[in-house]
Write the structure tokens for this entry.
Amino acid sequence: MWSPALYSVERVHLLQLLVWGAASFVVGAGVFAALRLRRDAAPLATSFAIMMVLCGAAESCFALVRWHGLGERDFAGALRLTTHVRLAIIADLWLVAGATVLLWAGVALLKRLDVLGIAAALAAHGGVLFVLDRLFLARLSSGA
């Protein structure tokens, strides 16, 4: 893949991360605001909303920092990028697995709804990040 094509593929991926991070931030903030307006003490929804806001903010900041330093890459840079994306895919799978264990612990051991909300938000973020990173790796591999 030529450097300008790699640059555009990487830019599209960062834009997708930014959109997902901003959307999850807005959804989480909206749910949290709605719960506060209704003065509803829903621990599952509150913890889900807070975790969505935190993860969305972190992902948006990551995408913006990477966008700022985005440039054309040489062959070694392209190989490093591919390696980083593969490691990110593994990390995404570990996030989903950890969220699954947290979900099980919240139901079976702790019997706490706030833990379920946190686990659900982490599983959602891990799943979406896995899909986005997988699509990015496919675009990197195909050269389109």
Observations:
- The chain has one domain: 3-67+74-142.
- Residues 62 and 68 are 10 Å apart (CA to CA).
- The chain has a mean pLDDT of 92.
